[in-house]
Amino acid sequence: MKNNGLPDDAFDGRPVIGICNTFSEFTPCNAHFRGLIEHIKAGVLEAGGLPLEFPVFSCGESNLRPTAMLFRNLASMDVEEAIRGNPMDGVVLMAGCDKTTPSLVMGAASCDLPSIVISGGPMLNGRFQGRTIGSGTDVWKFSEDVRAGVMSAQDFADAESAMSRSPGSCMTMGTASTMASMVEALGIALPGNAAYPAVDAHRNRLARMTGRRIVEMVNEDLWLSAILKKEAFINAIRVNGAIGGSTNAVVHLLAIAGRIGTPLTLDDWDRFGRDVPTIVDLMPSGRFLMEDFCYAGGIPAVMKEMADLLDLDALTVTGKPVRENIADARNHNTEVIRPRDKALTPQGGMAVLRGNLAPDGAILKPSAASPELMKHRGRAVVFEDIDHYKAVIDDPALDIDAHCIMVLKNCGPKGYPGMAEVGNMALPQKLLQQGVRDMIRISDARMSGTAYGTVVLHVAPEAAVGGPLALVRNGDMIELDVEARRLHLDVSDAELAERRAAWVAPVPAMKGGYQSLYVERVIQADRGADLDFLIGCRGHAIPRESH
Ligand code: FES
C-alpha cells in the first residue's frame, strides 16, 4: 500500500477506516460523492485514523433494469465481503439513492463492526413556472396530465430539468429521504443526516464529523449490534409514521433486522406505527420538500416533537442516547413540522392488511391514500403481469370504471423479478380524462416512495409462488377495509381450490447468473425479500491469511 504514498506511521496500528463509496455516474443521486468523501477522509485523518476508500455496486434507482431492488441483495453481498475480506477496523457507509442505503447497512450488519452511515443529501427544491415541484411525486402527476392531454411534452421535459437542478437524491419524502431518515432514527448516522441538502456546506461538515466519529467508535469498541436493538427499530418505525415515509422502508428495515439478528416482524410495523400521527408535511403525503424540512429542523426536531412515543434511552453512533442527541433540537417551522394536534394524518404509519387475498400480509400507506376509498367493495379488473397491463390499460374497450379495483399479478420478488415499483400503476387514460385521479390498486409489487394513492402493496405470498393473488379473476369482488386491516377476495374456498388446481407457475425469464440465484433463494416481502442464505450476522473475523 506504500504505492498510495502512505508514510510508515500509517501502519503503526492506528484505526483503519474503510469508506464504502456508492459513487457511480449511473446513479446520479450519488454522483457528487467524489467531493463528499474528501471531507470524510479529512475527519478520519484529524481523529488519527487511516481512511481507505473502496467502491461497491451502486444500486441506482432511475437506471437499473428490471429494477434496482433486484440488486439490493447483490450489493449487500459485495459490501459484506469487501468489509470482511479487507483489513478495516471500522466503516463509513456512503449512501444516497434508495437502495444504496439498505444494501450498505445490510452488508455491514452481516459483519457487525463499528459502522456509521452518511447520506449524500437531497437535491434543492424544484422550481417550475413559479411553483415548487418535487422529484417523483410531480413526475407521476405530470405524466398523468400528459396522458390526459392537459400538459405538453415540452413542458414535461422542462419540468424535469427544473426538478433536478442540483446534485443529490430525490427531495421529496421518497425512499431515499425516508431511508436517510431511517438511519438517523435508528441511531446509525449523526443527527441532521437526513435533511441537509447535498450542496449545503452543512453536509460537508457532517461528513467531516462522521469521519472523526468513526475513529472514536473504533476506539470505544462501539459496534453496530450495540445500536441496532429492537428499540432502535421501533423508534424508526414510529419516525417513519411521523414523516409519512416510504412503504419501501418496510422491506428494508425487515431485511436489516434479519441481518443483525434483531427480531422484527411485519406486524411490528402496524403495532408500533399505527397511532403515530404524520406531522411532517412533505410530498408525497403533503406540501413541502426536504430543503424546507432541513430549515425546519429535520429529524431531530421531529423526534423531539414525538419524544413521548420514542425510546429515548436507545444508544446511537454519537455514543449517547437519543435523549441527549435531541435535547437542543428546535422546530423552526410549524407548517413543515406540525404540532401533533395539527397533524397531517392522525394515523400515519403503515396499515398491515390480512385476509384470504394476503394470508401473510400486505401493506397500505394511509397518509398517501384517499379517505373515501379506505373502505370499499369493488369489481376486480385483473392484469396477469406488467406486460398485460401495459398492453390493455389504455384500450378504450377495457371494461373498467372508477369503482373497480385494479389487480396486478406477478410483480413480486420472484415474479418480476425483484419486486419492481409498479404497484402504483397509472389509471386508464379514459378515466383520467373523466377526472378520476385515484382508484384502489392491489399487487405484489412495491411502489416508489414518491408515489401516492390507495395502493395495496407487497401482497404475500406473491402470485408467482401461487399465492391467492394468482387466483383472482376479472369480475371477482374484493373488499378492502383499512380500519379493520382486512383484504378479502369474495370467492368461495371451493372455487379457489379449483382455480388453484388449474394454476400454472410462470417460467422465469432468465436462466443462470445472479437472476436465477435471486429467484431461487429470495424470501417473500413480509420477511424483507432478502436471499435466504444472507440472513444473519456472520461477524467480521477472517479465519486465514492469503499466503
Ligand atoms: Fe435516486 Fe430518487 S432516483 S434518490
Commentary on this structure:
The protein has 547 residues and is α/β, with parallel strands linked by helices. Helix content is 34%, strand content 13%. The strands form 3 sheets. The chain has an 8-stranded mixed beta sheet with strand order 7-8-12-11-10-9-13-14. The protein has a 4-stranded parallel beta sheet with strand order 2-1-3-4, with helices on both faces. α1 (33-46) links the parallel β1 (16-21) and β2 (50-55). α1 crosses α7 (201-220), α4 (137-148) runs antiparallel to α5 (153-163) and α9 (230-243) packs antiparallel against α10. The model has no long low-confidence stretch (mean pLDDT 96). The site of FE2/S2 (inorganic) cluster has 10 residues, from loops.
Residue runs with pLDDT of under 50 for 5 or more positions: none
Structural class determined from secondary elements:
alpha/beta
| Percent helix range | 25-40%
Quickly count the helices: 18
Average pLDDT over all residues: 96
| Largest sheet descriptor | 8 strands, mixed
Query: How many DSSP-defined strands?
Result: 14
Bound molecules: FE2/S2 (inorganic) cluster
So what's the overall shape?
Answer: globular
Q: Which range does the strand content fall in?
A: 5-15%
Strand arrangement within the widest β-sheet reads 7-8-12-11-10-9-13-14
- Radius of gyration based on Cα positions: 23 Å
Distance between the termini: 17 Å
